[in-house]
Write a structure and sequence with these properties.
The chain is α/β, with parallel strands linked by helices and about 325 residues long. The chain has 2 domains: about 5-105 and about 225-325, D-Maltodextrin-Binding Protein, domain 2 (3-Layer(aba) Sandwich), CATH 3.40.190.10; about 110-220, D-Maltodextrin-Binding Protein, domain 2, CATH 3.40.190.10. Helices cover about 40% and strands about 20% of the residues. It has 12 helices and 12 strands. It has helices spanning about 1-20, 40-45, 65-75, 85-90, 140-145, 165-170, 185-190, 210-220, 240-260, 260-270, 275-285, 300-310; strands at about 25-30, 55-60, 80-85, 95-100, 100-105, 110, 125-130, 155-160, 180, 205-210, 230-235, 290-295. The strands form 4 sheets. A 5-stranded mixed sheet has the order 2-1-3-11-4, sandwiched between helices. It has a 3-stranded antiparallel sheet with strand order 9-6-10. Helix 5 (about 140-145) packs parallel to helix 8, helix 6 (about 165-170) runs parallel beside helix 7 and helix 7 packs across helix 11. The two termini are about 40 Å apart.
């Protein structure tokens, strides 16, 4: 009888724990930059994809890696889009953050006024507008040119700016001839320079090779880099049901985003006013988008982190993150 009672109590606790996981939370905060990694989040909110687990779902824009770090440290988001190295850096510093997936594998390229320049070596001696000093895309640029035997500080004139939008504006206003940008800033700049009234003053701009192509050729690996994905922050990571639902819906929304370019552009502008709907739509075909669970992307991530650790260990917090980083 005592054994049956014990089993009944254990079953009751199991049911109670399961029911607690199924309960809705009052609010979930999703956060990310203006770049493509965030755009599926807009579709998730617009369609009420997480209504079964949260009474309210909000999006908060972070505009710089410093804002991203502040959000994670101060509890400003539950799920947040992160450059993978920043996620590793925060984790290694003791922040309660776990990487859920990698969805951005190719997003960077130099936009130039000189259509003859195709590879990074073609830009030796040139001034290049560079957003986010010591963060992506700066660190990827540096690792590639170092591996090619060049000195990023001596062989190039890097002009550091606060954001891709600032770099894009510099190009449009003829204050620089080349800028390293992430989509959709590249496609937006191309749209703006072909539209009235800017076409009267703006330069003709051309795409050079994507950096991911040069990465693959330089390091003899696939032409992709595990650049960004979604992470979970804080106590919400303990609710496996909510995390599971987020992962499912993010993958569905990314699939919708890739297949509905015009609508995706129109939706993005509703959430980030500084974007351009046509530019976002154009950008989708140039971004390598593929949701891969963090544990399944570990091999690619560790190769990337090893390269960064060799030349710039601070960019990942001094060491490769351990198993706890991968949700």
């Amino acid at each position: 009888m005592f054994k049956k009672l014990s089993l009944a109590i254990a079953l009751l606790f199991t049911i109670s724990a399961f029911s607690a996981q199924q309960e809705k939370v009052d609010k979930l905060i999703l956060s990310g930059p203006m770049a493509s990694v965030s755009h599926p989040l807009f579709h998730m909110i617009q369609t009420g994809a997480l209504d079964d687990v949260a009474s309210k779902v909000e999006f908060r824009l972070w505009k710089s890696p410093d804002e991203l770090r502040a959000f994670t440290l101060r509890g400003g988001a539950d799920f947040i889009a992160v450059p993978t190295n920043v996620g590793a850096n925060l984790y290694n510093k003791g922040v309660d953050i776990k990487l859920l997936n990698v969805s951005i594998w190719g997003i960077l390229g130099i936009l130039t006024r000189d259509k003859t320049k195709k590879t990074l070596k073609d830009f030796v001696g040139c001034e290049i507008a560079m957003p986010f000093r010591a963060d992506m895309p700066d660190i990827i640029f540096e690792e590639i040119v170092k591996a090619q035997g060049l000195n990023p500080k001596k062989d190039f004139k890097l002009r550091y700016l606060n954001s891709p939008i600032d770099a894009m504006q510099m190009l449009i206003l003829r204050r620089v001839d080349h800028a390293l940008l992430a989509e959709p800033a590249t496609s937006i700049a191309l749209r703006k320079t072909g539209s009235f009234p800017l076409k009267l003053v703006a330069p003709d701009l051309y795409r050079s090779n994507m950096l991911e192509q040069e990465w693959g050729e330089t390091f003899k690996v696939e032409t992709k880099i595990p650049e960004a994905g979604m992470a979970v922050v804080g106590d919400i990571s303990k609710n496996k049901h909510i995390v599971k639902r987020f992962n499912e819906e993010y993958a569905k929304s990314l699939k919708w985003y890739k297949s509905n370019q015009k609508k995706a552009g129109e939706l993005a502008v509703k959430y980030v006013k500084m974007l351009d709907a046509q530019g976002v739509s154009d950008s989708i075909q140039y971004v390598q988008l593929d949701v891969v669970e963090a544990k399944n992307a570990k091999k690619d991530l560790e190769f990337f982190f090893e390269v960064l650790k060799k030349n710039n260990p601070k960019s990942i917090g001094g060491k490769l993150p351990n198993e706890g980083f991968y949700y």
